[in-house]
Amino acid sequence: MRIVICYLIGLVFGVGISISGMANPAKVLNFFDIAGSWDPSLAFVMGGALLVTFIGYRVVLKRPVPLFDSGFHLPASRDFDLPLIAGSATFGVGWGIAGFCPGGALPALGTGQAEVVIFVAALIGGIVIAKLMQVALSRRSDVTA
């Protein structure tokens, strides 16, 4: 049942991204082009997402446990550390260069465009490299401890 719920949530997200036009990198890049053909629609999409999330968290977290899990999985740390800042910066730079974020690129895979496939392949490669680096750094700190 959990996999079905996850699929449905992803489907709703993907449809929303597609309907809003955020799977189109030109639309996203126009948001960043303040001096040129600026398109504020991304701000409205993000604002709508923040509003839904704000209300959703308030409603859902009043429950003792989620409907389909034994507990809530919320971040334990609120610290701003180097991995968080570096990851956020990398995400932002990549989004600004490519016009895709993972949330917009995955639904766009359905278009079959080569640049989308290349972006997703690079995204997966980056995830694998980051995980390998994390494991290597963890082993290195275990040896020195």
Question: How are the elements arranged and paired?
Answer:
Blueprint: H1 2-20, H2 25-32, H3 41-60, H4 82-98, H5 102-108, H6 114-144
Keywords: Membrane, Transmembrane, Transmembrane helix
InterPro entries: DUF6691
Transmembrane segments: 41-61, 82-105, 117-137
The major pleated sheet works out as:
none
Binned, the helix content reads over 70%
Q: Uncertain regions: pLDDT < 50 for 5+ in a row? A: none
The total count of strands amounts to 0
Assembly form of the protein: single chain
Give the radius of gyration.
18 Å
Total domain count: 1
Shape: globular
Brief synopsis:
The protein has helices spanning 2-20, 25-32, 41-60, 82-98, 102-108, 114-144. The protein has 145 residues and is mainly alpha-helical.
Task: Tell me what you see in this structure.
It contains 6 helices and no strands. With 145 residues, the protein is mostly helical. The chain has one domain. The chain is globular and about 55 Å long.
Notable features of this structure?
membrane, DUF6691, mainly alpha, transmembrane, 6 helices, DUF6691 family protein, transmembrane helix
